[in-house]
Amino acid sequence: MNIRTLAIRLSGIGVIGALLTFTVPSVAFASSNDGSCDWGEVCLYYYNSFQGPIGDTVNNYTNYAIYTFHNSSLPLNDDVDSVRNLDPNFGVTLYQNESFNTNVAGWSLWIPPNGSEATLGAYNNEASSHHWGN
Ligand SMILES: [Ca+2]
Ligand SMILES: [Ca+2]
Hints:
By secondary structure, this protein is of the alpha+beta class.
């Protein structure tokens, strides 16, 4: 192997490494309930204006009572005051009751793709489930 062959082989490794890095953007790793509001997640905040403990997830939550805010013992249930939707394609609907208000009267609130509510106002501290969908 001469110097040129070695250089080409090394540069080939460099290209492969770069491709691997490039094809794994950080957005692909939005991980739920890590306390970071990432692309594709709905983020639930304990206080108004996206402050305080956070609950972040890409999933539907049928019952907030079984979840807590990240690094907190505070339950999600009846504690959410503001919401961000970081999914550019899907809206998400919050419901007053567990199981998406199934067979129970209650309010629901749709947050559009990339939408947010800095306060749920009269609905503060009442949300108990959410479901993705437009
Ligand atoms: Ca996250
Ligand atoms: Ca609250």
